[in-house]
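I am still getting used to backbone structure tokens and would like to learn alongside you. Would you supply a protein for us yourself, any chain you care to pick? Start from the sequence, derive the backbone structure tokens from it, and show both lines together. Go ahead whenever you are ready, and we will take it from there.
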Amino acid sequence: MSSEALKGIRVLDLSRILAAPFCAQLLGDLGAEVIKVERPGAGDDSRSYGPPFLDDADGNPTRDAGFYLSCNRNKRGMTVDHSKPEGAALLRELAAKSDVFIENFRTGVLAKYGLDYESLKELNPRLIYCSITGFGQDGPYAARPGYDGVFQAMCGMMSVSGLPDGVPGGGPMKVGVSMVDILTGLYASSAILAALRHRDNSGEGQFIDMALLDCGLASLSHYVQNYLISGVVPERRGNGGFGGIPSQTFMCSDREIFIVASTNKQFGALTRVLGEPSLASDPRFDQVQKRIMHRDELLAILDSLFARRTATEWLEALEAADVPASPVNDVAMVFDNPQVKHRAMLAHTHHPVAGDLPILRNPIRMSATPIGEATPPPTLGQDNDAVLRDVLGYDDVRIAALRAAAVL
């Protein structure tokens, strides 16, 4: 059973790749009816972003990549060619019966088909129209294309990620995950929920202009704020943080662990675990600000101490002392973590072609409107007939005519 939180909200999702489909998926997880619209024959570009591709029940690869599966659960799937007048008209009909419209086409493209906000607003004044683009609806870069890595470079995220200059492997580095896409999807879903709340109070829909560049820059948060008040450009610190010290990885005799002991209480506990309690009263390190000022001296000492024992030995001692710490897990290790198992972050759904499909669970937990079992990402066009019948009341003759005209 799906969540009741957004029950009765219909989302028309014309988006592709990651940021916008991820946004629509979040709304679907929360109980909205999401209708994903793709190109006939080809579908969302992300279906081809493999390997790996999903195997069917017989072990043969399908056309759906893991990339596509990651951001399209809890959706109904349609194929519509909006470049055909009949296809554009069909989508306008659906928009007239929807609460939210999500798209990530280049600025101005959908206006050619009467699928822009101003056109749809005439049909449905209550519509929340969310456009997610690389650079936003205006400005000198508005017409440019762009992808996550471009925005990580442009917004400054790469400049603060990676090892410092002057050390082996030093230099700006892209965050491994498509982080700007994910963050933009989260920002956009919050904006849509706020717009729905406003509409409930006023009856007024609105246009939401989301730009990946804006979201990437906003996500730099305290890095940027530190720069704005100091004028000092943040340096790269590899796996080190910009808060209290220590907050970073340390190499043990066998593998790395991550430690955060930024408060005086935590730092004191850490020094006792390390067998060097005098470090906590050392005038260079006895306050948070002093440890930040003498970062390099302190980290050199800690590096030499952690190298003396294995990660498991240190982690057991640190846990007993209530010092936050973790092994540096790869993705396979994550699912062996007892807390991850307890929180049931690995879920399963039944895919019509593959059978059992392991997926990540939405991390939101709500007491009154819990998120239920997910429906699998749709196969290409799987709900064409059902949506046209259920939402628009089309009969078999009309659906067959659309199919014969290659609209579906």
About this structure: The domain at 247-251+256-327 is CATH 3.30.1540.10 (formyl-coa transferase, domain 3). The first strand starts at residue 10 and ends at 13. Residues 179-202 form the longest helix (24 residues). The chain is about 35% helix and 15% strand.
